[in-house]
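input
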Amino acid sequence: MNARPLLDVLEEDSKRILREVGVLQLFEMPSLPQNISLLYVLVRAFSRNKQAFLIGNNYMKFTVNEVALILGLPNRGKDFTFIRLPCIDLTHKDLIDEIHDLADQDWSLMLESRRVDILVRYLVNVFFFTLKGMKIPASLNKITCLSTFVEYNWPKAIHRFLLSQVDALSQASVVKKVGVNLGYLEGCTTILLVRSVNCNVCSLYYFFFIHTIFGFRFGYTNTQMSKWLFMI
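output
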């Protein structure tokens, strides 16, 4: 999940527009690698009854507000649901090709607002759904411009989507097998990626990597941050 290269080709007017509506930080986030093994541990730790992760002896909730902090997006707006319609779903590659075709239509002569709209389409499709072979929900087809994007509550939609995936996967018999490939967690998975601090005693501690959003750095011993480390 890395949109940083786009910053190098963005005009200042585009950056200003994205900054004013509070989405530029999504393009500034660093690219951090996925870790399927830790996703596997996290899925195994999920409790459907408590809707929380069993970490050590404690159940830890994953909340909408945490997603909002990670993405720097407000926890407000209209409800959005990732709806799949197999007959019109596109793959990650399909969307990349389509967006490239749009961008190739003489980018220098394109209106600034149109450039921003193309970037927003890239953002909601490719940024949230990073796996190239995966289908992108058809419901995202209606998010084609900035004015539409900012209407919706993305932290709430992503939180619900992630938990529904984790819940379904935690109940599947395949997750009981050691070394299972969890590549089919379909989207937004980088928000759930975590780093283990003490795997030897099977006790995982997670910390907010808030400096990826606000530019601050926190040590692993900071007690206020000793909950999650989200790899964004």
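quick obs: DSSP finds nine helices and five strands in the chain.
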